[in-house]
Write a structure and sequence with these properties.
single chain; 439 residues; Growth Hormone, Chain: A; 71% helix; globular
């Protein structure tokens, strides 16, 4: 079909545009960073929320003392997990199903605007005295968390769908950017610990940075439509689908062999191994991190600043996130198992389950079961390897999945892979609750 005269299709004269100065790659890195950084900063500010929900009859400095813990403080983290996981999984599925019905621009812009508005609301409440209406603040915070998680889920699934229209290294850029969001949050947490800033001021900085990152992501996405290389890939795939549909629109006897449920089933048949791989990778990781890893304390008998103040922040959060970021970065240049070795990738993804007993046998507290590893070296090594393998194998699976389908199905496949990933996250979070009770 000759499309040279159709003004709606991309007109390419001469060679296909190149990604000059790797600008589009860097934008996808930014989009990955911006898709998770806001939520990372939201959960990093857990002490801020505990301060807001504290027992106001006691001195402010005692807001973390277990003996003065309020009911709202005790419920907050478990409610926050529910407010994140359920909408996250639900909207990943919904996005994967509507990806052909609601255009990419609408999904991306709607989700980013929603996240920005919710963080602006969160920032506006930081300096307001909420001591007299803590229950209402608790409810507003949870509703905000649900909306942020919903928007972030639509954004994440749409972003992986978008990245799947490009060569596989752009999926890797997105994955690596997401890991960098975790590193930023962990570093910010360490800085606030080191300078000893007030918890409210720390919360304000976290949320303002989240707003900044969401706005920057919005701008980065808009820039993709101003660069020849990204415009070509986005419009070329769209035109392929449009041509396929339009070529049969006047044929009343034509029956589309690949529509509705069949469309998704055919994709699933091709990518189920990669999907299960990424699901298992994140299931194992979320079973361990952060629930078990953050409960590991130093084996030093004498309390020191290292063991009391920095051990968890450095070993649990920063070390894991740096390992995760490194694994995702390496996956861009070193790829083994190779594309097509889906069985090997799935086996390695499942074998990561060994990290669960290894970390549980470290000095995780409180515990009733025996401890096997009596040195701080063991949790350092295990958590670093947990992060490295999470980033590496998870990124390989996300890169390989969209390559197994025709270009016109790449966007839907990317969203489907995101749903597998989120299913692993949610399943791992639920397993973590059971594992913590068995310590």
């Amino acid at each position: 079909m000759d499309t040279s005269e159709d003004p709606l299709l991309p007109q390419v004269h001469g060679p296909i545009p190149r990604d000059r100065f790797h600008l589009v790659y860097l934008i996808f890195y930014l989009l990955g960073l911006g898709s998770l950084a806001p939520w990372n900063f939201f959960i990093t500010a857990s002490e801020y929320f505990k301060y807001k929900l504290r027992n106001t009859t006691q001195p402010e400095s005692e807001y973390l003392d277990p003996q003065y813990e309020t009911e709202l403080q005790a419920m907050f983290e478990s409610y926050l997990v529910v407010a994140n996981t359920i909408p996250n999984l639900a909207f990943n599925f919904i996005t994967a199903l509507i990806i052909q019905r609601i255009c990419l621009k609408t999904r991306m812009i709607f989700s980013l605007v929603l996240v920005i508005l919710m963080f602006v609301l969160t920032v506006s409440l930081v300096k307001i005295d909420t001591d007299t209406w803590q229950s209402a603040f608790f409810s507003v915070t949870l509703v905000t968390a649900v909306l942020i998680s919903s928007g972030g889920s639509i954004l994440g699934a749409s972003l992986f769908g978008l990245a799947s229209l490009f060569p596989s290294q752009y999926v890797q850029a997105t994955m690596t950017g997401q890991a960098m969001g975790g590193v930023f949050a962990a570093v910010a947490n360490l800085v606030t610990l080191a300078i000893g800033s007030h918890v409210v001021d720390s919360g304000l900085v976290f949320f303002m940075f989240a707003v900044f990152m969401a706005v920057l992501t919005f701008i980065g996405y808009g820039c993709l439509y101003c660069i020849g290389y990204s415009k070509y890939h986005i419009l070329e795939i769209g035109s392929t689908i449009a041509i396929d549909v339009n070529s049969h629109e006047d044929d009343v006897n034509y029956i589309d062999p690949d529509h509705g449920c069949s469309y998704y089933i055919n994709i699933l048949k091709k990518v189920w191994k990669e999907g299960l791989s990424v699901c298992f990778v994140f299931l194992v990781t979320l079973s361990c991190f952060p629930a078990i890893t953050s409960s590991i304390v130093s084996v030093e008998k004498t309390p020191t600043e290292w063991s009391e103040k920095y051990f968890s922040a450095l070993v649990c959060f920063l070390l894991f996130n740096c390992g995760d970021w490194s694994g995702r970065s390496v996956a861009g240049s070193v790829q083994w198992p190779k594309y097509g070795q889906s069985n090997i990738l799935l086996v390695f993804s499942v074998l990561r389950v060994v990290f669960i007993p290894l970390l549980m046998f470290c000095n995780a507290q409180p515990r009733t079961s025996p401890m096997m590893f009596h040195s701080d070296v063991f949790p350092v090594v295990f958590i670093l390897l947990l992060g490295l393998t999470n980033g590496y194998f998870g990124t390989l699976a996300m890169m390989y999945g969209p390559r197994r389908v025709p270009p016109e199905k790449a966007e839907s496949t990317g969203a489907m892979m995101s749903t597998f990933l989120t299913t692993g996250l949610v399943s791992g979070s639920l397993i973590a609750i059971l594992l913590m009770k068995s310590l």
